[in-house]
Amino acid sequence: MLTVSEALDRAQMLCDAAVKAGADAADALYYCNAATSVSMRLGALEDVERSEGQDISLRVFVGQRSASVSTADMDAGELAKLVERCVAMALEAPEDPYAGLAPEELLFKGPAPDFDLDDGSEADPKALREAALAVEEAARAVAGVTNSEGGSASHSRTRFALATSHGFAGGYGSSGHSLSASVIAGEGSNMQRDYGWHSAHYLADLESVADIGTRAGTRAVARLNPGKAPVGKVPVLLDPRVSGGMIGHLLGAIAGPAIARGTSFLLGKEEQALFDSGIIIRDDPHRQRGLRSRAFDGEGLPTAARDIVANGKITGWLLDTASAKQLGLAPTGHASRGGGASGVSASNLHLAAGNQSPAELMAGIRDGVYVTELIGQGVNMTTGDYSRGASGFLIKDGQIAGPIAEFTIAGNLIDMFAAIIPADDLEFRHGTNAPTLRIDGMTVASS
Prior knowledge:
Layout: H1 4-20, E1 25-41, E2 44-62, E3 65-71, H2 76-92, H3 125-140, E4 145-164, E5 169-187, E6 190-200, H4 209-222, E7 232-238, H5 240-243, H6 245-254, H7 256-261, E8 281-283, E9 306-310, E10 313-314, H8 321-327, E11 335-337, E12 342-344, E13 349-351, H9 358-362, E14 367-375, E15 385-396, E16 399-412, H10 413-419, E17 421-422, E18 432-433, E19 437-446
Parallel strand pairs: 7-14, 13-18
Antiparallel strand pairs: 1-2, 1-4, 2-3, 4-5, 5-6, 7-19, 8-9, 8-13, 9-10, 11-12, 14-15, 15-16, 16-19, 17-19
Helix pairs in contact: 3-4
């Protein structure tokens, strides 16, 4: 695998070649990944995978015209043809008044801080096999587990580099470790599946095989013999496994491209109190060992911690350069890059914890549902209408009263945001984290 410095050299070389070929401006993004994973099922080796891949994408600008191409072929001759093809495509593209690189005066000025994203480890197939076996054994040891879909362990290393023709060059590397188990409880028509999973940059930060496996088995057994959900408008509690989705829906609604197109249900609600005044949702790109930590965005602009919701209100849109130009605003350092034009993304996100335990949030609920799994994509980001399939547990007289399945929860995100009450059980386990959330007044229907 290339070093970060070598990855930067490759991106800069392609960017320079584009300018020599006639582009007025260009940027190039290089990404490579090497991953090893081992899967065990019922105590036997099921699969070993090793993948190594690299990709480079070039974006060029000729006046107000632009084009993007990408390839995994790093042959020098092929890259030269790629540059020529991209410039030729740009010459034929329609003009876009918002096309262009990020403002030079706003670019990140290095050196980049070290967010401790790489533990320097190399893949050890033997250790991965032992971990995959152990996590499955821990799950299968739970009374009531009758079958397994397997345990898996993986290791990865990545390199990312971005260079632009107007002076930016930055890159970083990271390591990744993950462990999971998926098992089945029950027999015949009364079978239920569930899982346990965790990932981290450092192996030392990974949850133990016993905890992950036991959680997978316990979750599967707890789902046996599901009943019917109550029908009507009832309080809903969202488990931390699914509560982060509320943040995801918010991000989609405040993304600059959606605002510029006029397709967000939050358009025109910038000054409205959408949440309770105590709700804080924070984007923290500089968290040590954060799964999405980064010093600069996909256009080379610096990132910074920001409360995207404070005092119950959104604090502004998340903007890349193009959407910022359309809206007459400044970019916010939230651009993301794939194989072509930039989009918008956030980094390490969390909804701040409240001051009540999940049990206290549940107390006083006569009939309600506790949701542990959501199914489907039934969210209209233009209107905010929300309808998702779900499974979880019945809440009866303030207590968990047994599993339920095959029901839907529905509402409108504006009403749902206003009703959110967070519990105190926030944990930083994923890229997006939220505690247990209570949302009153959602419509529950059982099939």
